[in-house]
Protein: Universal stress protein family
Organism: Streptomyces venezuelae
Amino acid sequence: MSREIVAGVDGSPESLAAADWAAREALHRGLPLRLAHAWRWEPIDLPLVQDRATQERVADEVLREAEATVAARYPALTVRAEVLRDTPVAALLGTEERAEMLVIGSRGHGAVAGFLLGSYGQQIIAGATRPVVAVRSRDGEPAEPPAGHVLVGQLGGPEDSAAALGFAFATAAARGAALRAVRAWSLPALYTYSPASMRLADEAGGLVPYEEKALREALAPWRERYPEVPVSEHVELGSAGQVLLSASGPAQLLVVGRRAKRGAVGPRIGSVAHAALHLAPCPVAVVPQD
């Protein structure tokens, strides 16, 4: 089954910026673009005039406007547009079978950092089985440096970040961009110090060389698979969120992994992804890890 890039649009400047970013990414990867607008008739028990036909027409106009804008800018791109008769979260998640990735808009920086992404966006990211890219808007255009590297965070062993690294390398290769891999580390808690727990670090020559070795080992299979991608490595003491954000300024895309987590109020996206989505200045790709 052929893949496609899916962008959710709702007529807002943020979603139009997401559609533009998705269109360029589709061209980079040689994939078609699917624009999706969620709409479902839900009459409410209020004394208001409710016109289903009018609302349906508005939904179609929102979609056609986005389609026309993208088609005019990128005439070589194959684009299809569709109104999905469901709630926004369910509608976008329902496109995953054929999606290479989902692309959504984000409102950008504001006074209340914890609410920048919006509840729909967080639910989509938390529930997705495919990578989700959140794109900020600046005057209706994607807030993305014209040039720069793809930045990816690596945590744990090679298997723990395999999905994020694979997505980051594939993106860098498609764009002809360099990749910068960052691994954050912290000092072990005092009670974890023991001859057994510190043996591997001692064999590597200390904690920093141990972390550098772990990053090299995680990158090795992807360097071999994508030899054309220039790669730089960075290991830094600190929290993963802080280290990634400090390195994200010149990046054209920040890639982070997400493990499936479920809290008392439903799925969670994790602290690192949360920090990146709300504070990084560039588009952020959140890649679910099996």
User: Anything to note?
Assistant: Confidence is low (pLDDT under 50) at residues 43-49, 108-116.
